[in-house]
Amino acid sequence: MRQYSADLTPPWKKPQSVPEVAAEPGLVVEEPGTGFCGAVIRCEAGTVTLEDRFGKHRVFPLEPRGFLLEGRVVTLVRPSAGPARPARTASGSVAVPGARARVARAGRIYVEGRHDAELVEKVWGDDLRVEGVVVEYLEGVDDLPSVVESFAPGPDARLGVLVDHLVPGTKEWRIAQSVTSEHALVVGHPYIDVWEAVKPASVGIEAWPRVPRGTDWKTGVCEALGWRVANTGEAWRRILDSVHSYKDLEPQLLGRVEELIDFVTAPS
């Protein structure tokens, strides 16, 4: 006697199977119900946390057919246990688990101001502690030649200096050229202020405004963006909070900081 299936649903009405994709950190997906698109930063039992390009986090349930991957419906699943990927620091370096801060070197890295120092600390802080490199700020570079002379850099005490707006022909350029010690390295980025070295998209703006000559740059930026002009410190916190890793910074700054770290930590 022939047996017939109890399922009389026509094939074209049956839900199509979709691929299961492990919710690995960094995987970019979209939740179609809300339109929220972001990278996976955490996957726990039953939920996944996404971070969008503005740094906003949203938690979603791991439901079947719950996400879009490159426009295709997928089911996210919790990654299976396996060999752990090496953790990364904010600068992209391989993290050293349990590493203690090294005793500070005699060498130093100087940056122009407090904002520069805070940004370097946020992205390269882990690396600098492992290497024993201390970052200090100068409050401007007008007295840089005398600062270098007072520091007296040598083979075992190298000095690296990061300068804002280091463009040929500028005051900063002429000052940097006056530093001639072979144990001191002065490099810089082209931006008027380190604020500009943060990618506009990371801050949630289309571009950094052009500020008329003669106007304080930070004040002009706040005015153009509709931020509170009276509190540039608040504006800086907003910018710094948008930086999560080296990916949020312009290459012109990344390359120069890495160059200084290599210089200061090179064997004597």
Describe this structure in words.
With 268 residues, the chain is of the alpha/beta class. The protein has two domains: 17-77, SH3 type barrels, CATH 2.30.30; 108-265, no CATH class. Helix content is 26%, strand content 20%. It contains seven helices and eleven strands. It has helices at 114-131, 144-151, 171-177, 200-203, 217-225, 232-241, 251-265; strands at 20-22, 28-31, 36-44, 47-51, 57-61, 67-69, 72-77, 108-111, 134-137, 159-163, 184-188. Strands 2-3-4-5 form a four-stranded antiparallel beta sheet, with no helix packed on it.
Briefly, what is this?
This protein is an alpha/beta fold and 268 residues long.
Global outline: globular
Main sheet: strands, sense, barrel: 4 strands, antiparallel
Number of helical regions: 7
Number of strands: 11
Indicate the mean pLDDT. Answer: 86
Radius of gyration (CA) equals 25 Å
For the terminal residues, how far apart are their CA atoms? 90 Å
Pfam families: DUF3097_C, DUF3097_N
Domain DUF3097: 20-79, 108-265
Protein name: DUF3097 domain-containing protein
